[in-house]
Design brief:
Layout (H helix, E strand, L loop, with lengths): L10 E11 L5 E11 L3 E5 L6 H9 L6 E6 L2 E2 L8 H5 L2 E5 L10 H10 L5 H14 L15 H13 L5 E5 L7 H16 L3 E5 L3 H7 L2 E6 L2 E6 L7
The protein binds adenosine-5'-diphosphate (ADP).
The site of adenosine-5'-diphosphate has 12 residues, from helix 1.
Length: 237
Amino acid sequence: MEIISEANEENMIVMDDVFVEYSNGTVALKECNVCVEKGEFLFVVGRSGSGKSTFIKTLLGEVKPISGDVIVGGIKINKLRRKRLPYYRRRVGVVFQEFRLLNDRNVYENVALAQRVIGASERFMEKRIRNMLKLVGLENKINSFPGELSGGEQQRVAIARAMVNKPAILLADEPTGNLDPENSWEIMNLLNEVNKLGTTVLVVTHNNEIVDRMKKRVITLHDGKIVSDVKQGGYLQ
Ligand code: ADP
């Protein structure tokens, strides 16, 4: 993998004049310039169609910009060869609105799958998984299946799965979109804890109450453009 430089490693995410255009000609991101330091917590907000999902997909290397550079943890994603992408993605934790758990596997197995792909030993894995489930407050649900858990609990399993390989960055795409207010706050508090442990956390959300109350950095997208980037911001200022 191309590591840019040690100095750049302090910047967890750099987008340098990024343009993304889909094959039908839709420009989903334009003139995007972002710099996120290691250990930051930030929200990305914007109306439907403003480019939020494209923003996350670009960081995951699922969508390639037509111009500009995307550098995550010192790795220039837009220059990464296709076969290197899966290795890169294992270094990034991702959480989705719809949890994406395997319903025929229990909690332990759902978290273990993320470890199996990196070839961890069973003994090492079990310790890690138990620690992660403790972190998300679900050690007593280790043998439960997703269908036996509440939405908030399922999202906590998804966070444990995303964090079990200790990624430096966690990307969350509408993580509270399917949850009631109480569970939404639990998930946000958990993401805050994860951030306090040193992980850079980026959350795409529509939840204006959460954004307004958390007083974190807020990047607002409109028609694919960053229209504001505020240190302790609120929703759609
Ligand atoms: P958001 O997540 O904020 O709703 P998206 O990133 O999904 O926004 O979409 C940004 C723009 O790109 C919208 O105009 C959307 O219609 C368009 N778009 C998204 N995905 C595709 C795609 N695969 N092909 C063509 N256009 C797309």
